[in-house]
Every structure is written in structure tokens, then in C-alpha cells.
Amino acid sequence: MSNSNDNSILIVEDDELFATMLQLCLEKQGFCVEVEPRGDLAVDRIVTLQPKAVVLDGMLPGKDGMDICREIRPSFQGVILMLTARDNDVDQVLGLGLGADDYLVKPVTPMVVLAHLRACLRRQEVAPPPTAKLQERTFGRFSISNTSRTMRLGDEDIRITAADFDLLWLLASHAGTILSRDDITASLHNIEFDSSDRSIDMRISRLRRLLQDDPVKQMRIKTVRAKGYLFSPTHWD
Q: Which CATH number, 3.40.50.2300, 2.60.40.10, 3.40.50.1240, 3.50.50.60, labels domain 8-124?
């Protein structure tokens, strides 16, 4: 398991039976899978190995899964799929806010985990653009490229997860236009907006931090009350 460009998966899970079942399920689909049962060993292992994806349990010996997610996200661009027995909205929002790409509540079958994992990996894949139209946008000191899946603010290259990039590219491609949560969800996931799902709000907050946007003044990504979000084409100098 050498880098994030292969089919490597690291399962961070202390339930030995479930971890074994999930490992066998993923290996049958062609993934190279390893298991880490301890949370206090997971961070170094993830950062060193840089797998394609991490299936991360929320409750682990040595270190909590939420803490692991928070620590690895700045230096890990692969998929993070969180599993937890804690069935409440607060944990789900917290996990997504910390950088998880998806969140599943136990009990869950290995096949369901596989389906969600594949969906996350598809979103992360870089497909060759059909045309050069709107594949790069520049706003003052900020530039974003859908071709290379990179973005830059001033002299700084900004690291970002695949899911967050998709959201930012969608907003930047419609600069100056208000996009509702329903528009965003339909464009990114092809599903209708659920008013109880706050994951989009959490991702917007994370984008503001990455873009050094004032969370109160909101000059770069604006919240338009009762309507949605607007990426400003100005205020980037």
C-alpha cells in the first residue's frame, strides 16, 4: 500500500469480525486492504501509507475516530468513510465537518460500505474534460482548475478533498449566481435536498476557512438567506 493512486484501502476498526468480513468483501472487488485496530496508531499509518481510502470507525481504543479524522485531513487527500454506532445528527454533522466524505451508522453490511465507498471514489476520480470550456477560472488572486483539480490563492496551493473541490468548482462556475441547497445537492449527488441534512453548510464553512473568507462578513462565499449560496467574482485581491 504505497500511495493514494492505487486501489489500497485501510480499515481502521477494532471489531475483528466485522473488519475481517469487510476486508474479504473489498478484496473480492480487487482492492488491496489492510486493517488497523488501534486508533492511537492510525494517524501515523494513514499519513505514511496514503491509501486510496480509509474506512474509519468512530469509536476506537487509544484515539477517537473523530480526532483521527481531524488530524489526518490536512495531510490526506484520499477518501474518508466514517462508520460509527452513534446514531445522532450531531455526530454526523461533526464527522462531515471534520472532513469525512461520507458517514454510515452501524450496524451496516460490508456490501453497503462497499457501495458508499465506490460512490466516494467515483467522485474523486478525475475524468478528462470533454471540452476546454470553463475548465479554469481566475478571480483576482484566486484560481481554480477543473483539469488538474487544483486551486491557488495568491502564492499558496490549497489542498482540498475531492468532495469539497466539486462543491467549490460548482460555485465558482456559477460565480455571481445564487445556488440553492437543492441546486447544489442535485448537481453533486443527483438527489433531492433534505432540509435536515446540514452537510452542505458544514462544507461551505470549511471552504470559507480554506479561502480565508471572513465567516461573518462573507465576502467570497455569501449566504443568501432563504435562497442559498453565492460565489462572489470580486473581493479576491
A: 3.40.50.2300
